[in-house]
C-alpha cells in the first residue's frame, strides 16, 4: 500500500478544498481562471517573470482563511494542520487594525522549511474570536458565546486521531490518507444546518465576523486565495467580467520599484442562500453575506529594518491623507514609496532592508579570490547572484482592510473598556507549540545561504 508523505497530503488537501470551494462559490472558479490568464500573460511579457517563484508554484499556490471560536477549537485546528506539515507562523491582532468591529486574533499555519514551501506552499490564515474582550461583548454575551461554542464540535475525534498519527509519522498509508482528507475537507464545508436567526442577528449587530464565527454550529472556508503576478491586471480583468471588486488593492502600492511584502484584493462578498430557524420554531430560507474571493500578489520579505521603514511609510501616507494632500490612498502611497524605498533589489540589499539567498555564477569557478570578500562586490563582479526571498506571511492592516471591505456595516465596540491582552506568547500556549516569528525564519534562511556561499567560494563572505 502506498504511503503519502506530509507534503503530498498538503497538496491533496489544498486541491480538495479548492474543488469544494469552487462548487460553493462559483465566482471563485472565475477568479482562478482569470488568475491563470494573468500569470500566463505576465510570464510571456516579462523576462524575469519567475523572479519570485516558478510559474508552476505560483499557479498552484493558495492560501485559505478560516475562523474558530475558542482556544480549544484553535488548539484542535492546529492539530489538523500539523498533519499537513503546516505550523503556526506570525501573530496578527485584527481588533485594532480594523476600523470596523473585527474581534479576532490570528495566526497562519504554513510550511516552514524552504523545500516544503517549494513543494506546496499552502497556508491558512486562522482567526480566533476574542470572546473575552469587553469592548465587544458584555459579561452576559460572553457567557452565552462560550456556552454556544462549547456545545459544538468542529473537528470529530476520528479526524484529530488521524491528524496526530500523520503528524507523528510524517504521512499516512493510502487508505488512512483518504479518510483524513475526507474528514478534514468536510470539517471546512459550508453547513446546511439551520442557523438560529435571533442568535445570529444578535451577534451581527456587534460584528458580522463574530456572527460568522459564533452564530453557527460549524466553521467553513471563508475565502480561498490564488496568487497572481500582476494584481492590478487581475483587478481590471475581473471588473471587465462584471464582477464587483472592493474599492482598492490593500497593502503596498503599484510602483516602478521592487514589489515588497504583500498586496491583496477581493471581489465583494456575495449573498448566499442559507436556512434559518426563527424564534417561532419555523424554518425558512434567507441570505448571509460573509464569504468573498480574495487574491494576492507576493513580494520580497523585508528585514526588521525594512519593516520599520514600511510602517513609517504607511504612517506617512495616513498623515498626508489626513492633511488633505491627496484623496486616493494608492496615489499618495506611490509618491511616498518613490521618496523612501530603493528603486531596485540591490538597493534593498545594500541598505539591509530585504532578505535574499545567494548562488554562485559559472564565472566564480575561474575567479581568483582572497581569504574574504564583500558580498556586494562579489555581486557587482558577476560572481554571485542574489535571489529575493518571497514574503510568505500576512499584514494585519491589509487583512483587516479585506475583512471590513466586505462587511455590510461597521458593527459596534465600546472603547471605554480595556481590551483583553493577547500576544504571540499566549497564542503559542493556545496552539500548543511556539508560534514562529516570520522575520526569524527569513533571517535563518538568509544566514544559511550566506554560510553555504562561503563554503562554495572557499572564502569568508562579509555581508
TrEMBL record:
Q: What is the E.C. number? A: 1.13.11.93
Any one Gene Ontology molecular-function term assigned to this protein's record: dioxygenase activity
Q: Name one Pfam family in it.
A: HGLS
Instruction: Write the protein's name.
Output: 2-oxoadipate dioxygenase/decarboxylase
> What cofactor is this protein dependent on?
Fe(2+)
Family stated for the protein in its record: Belongs to the 2-oxoadipate dioxygenase/decarboxylase family.
Q: Which UniProt keywords apply?
A: Dioxygenase, Iron, Oxidoreductase
ATP-binding: is it a keyword of this entry?
Answer: no
